[in-house]
Amino acid sequence: MEGVDHLAHERNKSEFDVDAMKIVWAGSPHAFDVSDRISKLVASDPGFRKDNRSTLSRKELFKNTLRKAAYAWKTIVDLRLSEEEAAKLRFYVDEPAFTDLHWGMFIPAIKGQGTEEQQQKWLPLAYKMQIIGCYAQTELGHGSNVQGLETTATFDSQTDEFIIHSPTLTSSKWWPGGLGKVATHAIAYARLIVGGREHGVHGFIVQLRSLEDHSPLLGITVGDIGMKFGNGAYNTMDNGVLQFDHVRIPRNQMLMRVSQVTCEGKYKQSDVPRQLVYGTMVYVRQTIVADASCALSRAVCIATRYSAVRRQFGSQNGGPETQVIDYKTQQSRLFPLLASAYAFRFIGEWLKWLYADVTQRLQANDFSTLPEAHACTAGLKSLTTTATADGIEECRKLCGGHGYLCSSGLPELFAVYVPACTYEGDNTVLLLQVRDMSCKVSHEDCFSAGVQAVQQETSRYNSLYDSSRAFNAMSLRCSKSALLEAFEARAARMSVACAQNLSNFDNPEEGFAELSADLVEAAVAHCQLIVVSKFIEKLQQEIPGKGVKQQLEVLCNIYALFLLHKHQGDFLSTGCITPKHAALANDELRSLYSQVRPNAIALVDAFNYTDHYLGSILGCYDGNVYPKLYEAAWKDPLNESVVPDGYHLYIRPLLKQEIRTARL
Ligand SMILES: CCCCCCCCCCCCCCCCCCC/C=C/C(=O)SCCNC(=O)CCNC(=O)[C@H](O)C(C)(C)COP(=O)(O)OP(=O)(O)OC[C@H]1O[C@@H](n2cnc3c(N)ncnc32)[C@H](O)[C@@H]1OP(=O)(O)O
Ligand SMILES: Cc1cc2nc3c(=O)[nH]c(=O)nc-3n(C[C@H](O)[C@H](O)[C@H](O)COP(=O)(O)OP(=O)(O)OC[C@H]3O[C@@H](n4cnc5c(N)ncnc54)[C@H](O)[C@@H]3O)c2cc1C
């Protein structure tokens, strides 16, 4: 039935002000206004249609992405959109493209690592898209180990140039988005060699293609690396391969904020820490954390709406069957993901603030908070993307068979999202970077101060948490401080255990390698503690709107208690809770699921996603799933003819037992 809201009865059940929750989700009334306006603009413009992606060939798909990117740019210019509005437009167009790397990495790399002079020269060209850039760091042989990159940049003082060269097959740049077919320029990372001495990896602005006819410049071999996972999905991006054959660039195209090479061939290091060469990655990791809540909430919105539409079993006297959302098993899989989406929203907000603060300090040459920003962005990027990728797949399963159809939107969402667990740093490798934050008693401390230091730390952490006091309150309702203390104690004790074990090794590096799996678990515990604590902090703010704060409190408790339930081995083995507490936590979770149930549809409506953005028949706002699925099936190219192509060649000879004479 066209125009009927099949989920109206669900919406009527909600106990809070959905419009107020929309503002909380968006971040502010202004952010809501921008997001709402731009999402509707994109949804209503046929130029941004995306429902045909899974049936296009790679070449058609890519050409269509080029058209959309050009159309998006025209829209931005014609409508004079602000930077904020343009970013929202990109978000709602919902298609990875070379422009992401241009705006998201090439420009930030120049801003973060270029001198004033370099910024003045390159940024105006990049802002007007008169040049298009990519970020060429990873090579065929090395991605995680940036210090292991093989591309060289050798200074030639005779000509005042660098010679960029790929000495081996494994030194070929491999993966950079936008490189394959579009970028005219790259920030290429290479080992700097001056006067025969190596100075580590640095960034260089290298022109790749002619600005006249787009052909590769002399010494450049460049192309696309081929099809990737899934139909549509990340195949709209031209991830590329690049080899340099003694390509010459002027000296002033080395990004020189961190260190400089003079025309006489002197290498000078400024006061800026070397790690700033990695600064672009910190920036992008922070945006990836902010984006995780978008991808997860999208999947959760689809699975929640469909779970309210779908009915199986339980019919009484010929009445309707049970909505699958009413099954406790469905709730115990779905509602923690709903809670995680909200938790990640707030951690994303916090990390944005942290990053803005670090940026301000960096501009004033205060580098003191850089290590913390690195550890937090690395750890939280890993935690949120792993949970989001797993969560999207869980949502697909929550939708049963129909979740496997492309028209559910979930297969493509998973395929496009899952590389976030790898790009901008493999998630395990990044968790190992959290060691400074999680393992407060670092291995160096263990060796310098000895076991005594570990013992002192252990007793400090032991006093942090008194399990019987903390969990008494939970028998009735969750106490935020009790929960937080349990997470603090768990993270601290896991770190202390790592430190103690490390102290048993004579060689710290050997100990670190041997215990790395434990260190990763301690890092996860630490990151989960941060997410829980920031959710609780959010609840300490004033949150207007009838019932909004209460809903967020329920979600916060679900997020924390679900983790406590899932990782109860950690909590029990570190003595933070007793088995009785664990059982209480589980009872509390069940009761919280019942509180979410009547509000579930409204809680996903608060994301304010258009049907265009969701791209899912199962998740459409009106819940009119079955007619839409039926209609969509007939539009599949395979149904264009009743008898398929190939019938006469392959099916008929089989049926007629003429297979031996058929031309196969
Ligand atoms: C249409 C028009 C639209 C207009 C507007 C639209 C706007 C659109 C905007 C879109 C935005 C979208 C942006 C998002 C796009 C996302 C696409 C993603 C594409 C993917 C890109 C990539 O993947 S790029 C490559 C990423 N590579 C990696 O991440 C490699 C991972 N490896 C590393 O990071 C490191 O090498 C390492 C940390 C793992 C290595 O560690 P190691 O200890 O060996 O290193 P070092 O010896 O080099 O370092 C020692 C020292 O430094 C510390 N450190 C390491 N990294 C950092 C860092 N990043 N920052 C600060 N400090 C760092 C490290 O901890 C050590 O410290 P010590 O104190 O010495 O211990
Ligand atoms: C879709 C996509 C887009 C990308 N875009 C870009 C781009 O624009 N520009 C760019 O430069 N790069 C890009 N990349 C590359 C990306 O940054 C790297 O793939 C990523 O950093 C992982 O590195 P790797 O491939 O070398 O993995 P590897 O390091 O080879 O990882 C393989 C396995 O080894 C494990 N491992 C590695 N080192 C350790 C260790 N020290 N301890 C324990 N385990 C370890 C990992 O956990 C993983 O399980 C992109 C990648 C993808 C998939």
UniProtKB/TrEMBL annotation:
KW Electron transport (keyword) present: no
Q: Where is the Acyl-coenzyme A oxidase N-terminal domain?
A: 17-132
Please list the GO terms describing molecular function.
acyl-CoA oxidase activity; FAD binding; fatty acid binding
Keywords, A to Z?
FAD, Fatty acid metabolism, Flavoprotein, Lipid metabolism, Oxidoreductase, Peroxisome
**Domain Acyl-CoA oxidase C-terminal stretches:** 481-656
Q: Can you tell me which residues form the catalytic site? A: E424 (proton acceptor)
Q: What's an example GO BP annotation here?
A: long-chain fatty acid metabolic process
UniProt xrefs under Gene3D superfamilies: Acyl-CoA dehydrogenase/oxidase, N-terminal domain, Butyryl-CoA Dehydrogenase, subunit A, domain 2, Butyryl-CoA Dehydrogenase, subunit A, domain 3
Q: Which cofactor does it need?
A: FAD
Provide the Gene Ontology terms for cellular component. Answer: peroxisome
Q: Is Transmembrane a UniProt keyword of this protein?
A: no
Q: Which residues form the Acyl-CoA oxidase C-alpha1 domain?
A: 278-435
Any Pfam family matching the protein = ACOX
Top-rank taxon, per record? Eukaryota
Tell me where the signal peptide lies. Answer: none
InterPro entries membership: ACOX_C_alpha1, Acyl-CoA_ox_N, Acyl-CoA_Oxase/DH_mid-dom_sf, Acyl-CoA_oxidase, Acyl-CoA_oxidase_C, AcylCo_DH-like_C, AcylCoA_DH/ox_N_sf, AcylCoA_DH/oxidase_NM_dom_sf
**Which coarse location class describes where this protein primarily resides?**
other
The record's subcellular location field reads: Peroxisome
- Annotated positions binding FAD: T138, G177
Q: Hey, which family's this protein in?
A: Belongs to the acyl-CoA oxidase family.
Q: What is this protein called?
A: Acyl-coenzyme A oxidase
